[in-house]
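Title: Prediction job returns without error message
Component: structure pipeline
Severity: low
Priority: P3
Assignee: unassigned

Description:
Job completed but the reporter wants confirmation the result is attached to the right record. Sequence as submitted:
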Amino acid sequence: QIQLVESGGGLVQPGGSLRLFCTASGTIFSRYHIGWYRQGAGQERELVAQIFSSGITKYSDSVKGRFTISRDNTKNTVALQMNSLKPEDTGFYYCNGGMSVIGAGPTWGKGTQVTVSA
């Protein structure tokens, strides 16, 4: 089973950009579907973007056109490029991995904080 570690969070002004990274240990990373979830204060965790082992991507309506998810299997890394950030994008961002195309996988990172504020 892989382990996931997030990095790249921080404080950014509205309209700015951040790039998050999810780095995995293990030798079968390429077979994993990876998702980015976020949880705002007092809110449920929601799926923001997902990239399947095939490379197919999926986005929530709230981030479509602003966020881009990509993977580099040679580096065991998935990146989430976030542009045109809004205050409502604020939250704790978690990386999730699994081999099922349905629902969240069993492996979670510890998360990274993203704050969008002037």
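Comment from assignee: result matches the submitted record. The CA atoms of residues 39 and 66 lie 18 Å apart.
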